[in-house]
Structures are given as structure tokens and as C-alpha cells.
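Recap for those who missed Tuesday's class. We walked through two folding examples back to back. For each one, the amino acid string is listed first and its predicted C-alpha cells come directly after. Nothing is annotated here on purpose, so try labeling regions yourself before you check the end of the notes.
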Amino acid sequence: MEALLRPPALLFRDTSMNDEISSALTRINRALSRIEVATARPMAPAVDGRYERLRARTQAALAQLDTVIARATREDVR
């Protein structure tokens, strides 16, 4: 699977921050890969409701990450 989230070449001037972001994106990509594999399997009806709630929470968390990264990128450019 191709990585879904890729860090820009240089997001922050501080290279340790770039390394942390790159590491976080790597972990997120691995988690997304595991989720993809798990969703390919049929689910029992009881699990389906839990899955949908977890999916909604995951989407909300990713949206928050997008906001944080966008805000940090704008602040670093200044």
C-alpha cells in the first residue's frame, strides 16, 4: 500500500520537529494499513455499529491533526 500521508520536504525549520512529524505520519500510515486489512473482512452486525463509531472518531481525530498541521505550517512560514 502506498503511504497516504506524506510530510512535505521541510515543514519546520527545526529538523527534530520534522522527524517527529515524519515518525507520526509513518505510524498513522501503518495504522491505516491495518484498518484497511481489517475492513476487507466481513463483520458481524454487532461489530458493525462499533466500527462505525470508531470510524467517526478516527475521522474526527484526523481532521484535528490536519488543522494542527495546517496551523503549524502557517505559523512557521511567518
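Example two. Treat it independently of the first, because the proteins are unrelated.
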Amino acid sequence: MDNYKELMEESKSVLIPIATSIITTIATTFIIDYKKRFGKIKIFTKNWECTTSAENEVGETTYVKANSLNVKDIYIIYKLEIYNGSEINKIMRDIKIEFFKKSFLKNRNILTTIPLDEDTKTKKSVFHELSEANVINIKPKECIEKIFHFTFNSNSDVKKLKNTNRIYISYINERNKKEMQFIKENIID
């Protein structure tokens, strides 16, 4: 029986350091992995150009800078810088631009649109065709530049835009959760 107690005492002195090192290794791995995922996507608006169609002296339709929303259509081109601050790849899926009216208690969604991505431009005889922004993959600690377009040419949509005072970009992240980031306050500066 004494031999058994001695054996247990000796094994404790060996097992405790082994167990401690295993727990420390697992905890360190977990903390390092967590810190890698900690960074977020940051979005910066670099350029926002709002135009409307108008006829020139010859009667051709051209696009001119929109000074108000008392027009029949709005065409917006904007440039974003998207920065991935984490140490893992980040994804943006189902990208939308959401227009809100900020009221006293909360923001109310007025209109949502899917932007067209400049990177998908293809030439079709006389004009260019753009596809909807679909998926953006951003490498760790990288900043990418994206140019998006969208058009509102129905009277009801243009009327809704008059009430907008908050514009957000929304997307689904790599954890399948919806994220929203503020872009700007007013459509026309």
C-alpha cells in the first residue's frame, strides 16, 4: 500500500506539469485565433457623384450634376475603400445600399437597392453593361477600392429619396450575419 502512495505522489509531480502545459497550449492557441479574427471591415466613402439626365442644345440626352432631387431620374456613381483589419480573409455577400429616414426614435428604411459593380463592366456594341455587386473577398490587412453605380428612374423612388437623410451599405459577413456601415448623410451634398 505504501508503494501505491509513493507511486501516486510521483505521478502527481509528473502529471501536473504535463496537464498545465497542455492547458496553456490550448488557451494560447485559442487566444491567438481569436485575436486574428478580431479585426473588422472598415468602409470609407471616397467619391460620391450624383447626376441626372438632361437634354443639351442639340436635343441629345446627357448626364449633368444633380443639384436637387426635383428631377425625374438619379444616377449615382461612388467609390469606396474597403479595409480588412483582421488577419483572416473577410467576405462581403449580398451587398445592398439602404436609404433611411432618421426619425426621433429610430431609423426607418425607405428604399433598398443592389449596386452595380464597375469591375463587371462588359462592352456591348455601343454601351457598357454592369452586373450586380455579388461577392467581395478581402485579404488580411488589405485595402481595396470598389466603384459602384445605381440608378433610380421611377418617380416613386425619386420621391422616396427626398426623405433620405442616412445612407448605409449592408452585407452578409463570413459568419452569415448582416453587417451595416454608414456611408453618408445626404444624397446630394
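Answers for example two:
The longest helix spans residues 2-37.
The chain has two helices and eleven strands.
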